Structure formats: structure tokens, C-alpha cells
Predict the structure.
Amino acid sequence: MKTNKNLGLSAIAVLLLMAFAPNSASAQQSDIKRTDLQKHDLSIPRREAVQVKIDFGPHTAFGKHYHHGEEIIYVLDGTLEYEVEGQGTVTLKAGEVLFIPAGTVHSAKNTTNAKASELATYVVEKGKPILVLKK
């Protein structure tokens, strides 16, 4: 009887831990900081340009998503790994660039022990969300 009781208590402890432990996706994203730099209407109807600096803590990732327009990435510091639908995985270091076509699902992660940063420039449809998470 004592063994069954210990097993039951262990199961309860595991369930409580699972319920209150942070979700790994949100825990990873919590060490990612977005700084909006500028946003301007373009001469192209219904389009705007948005620039954002994104800082990634060590071993952090931003999950699969897409944009209602193009994204132009310039890695400012460190090394970032991008998984881009139809292109596979590409690893970029500071000073390197990446172009992501409109509507293309992609993700980004810092697989190193150091911080990394990118400058993201979006040319997107005005009035639509800049970022759409993919489920």
C-alpha cells in the first residue's frame, strides 16, 4: 500500500510541475527583445516600411511565422540560424543578410552561448499584422 501511495504522490508532483512550469516556447521567446525603430508610409499604395531591432538571448528561438510582405534581415551581432520554407536552414553571422519573400513561413534561433541581434526591415501591407504566428 505504501508504494501505491508514493506513486500517487509522485504523479501529483509531476502534474503540478507540468502545470506551473513555463512553456518552453514562451520561455525561449521571453529572452527575445523587439525594439521598434521606425514606421513610414511608402509611395506604393497600401504599403508601409517598418524597421525593428531584435535581440536574441543565448539559445533562444522565435517559432514559425510569416509576414504580409517582404522581410529583409541584416545580422548586427552574433550568429543566427533561420529555417525558411522552401530554402532550408541558413546560418548567418554579423554583417550577413537574408531576404524572405512575402507569406513565406520561417523561424529564427540563436544556437550559441552569446547574444545575437538583427535589424529586420519589413515592406508590408498597411493595416495587417506585421507578424502572424504559424500553428
In short: Helices lie at 2-20, 24-29. The beta strands are 32-41, 47-56, 61-66, 69-77, 79-84, 88-93, 97-100, 106-109, 116-125, 132-133. Residues 14 and 88 are 37 Å apart (CA to CA).
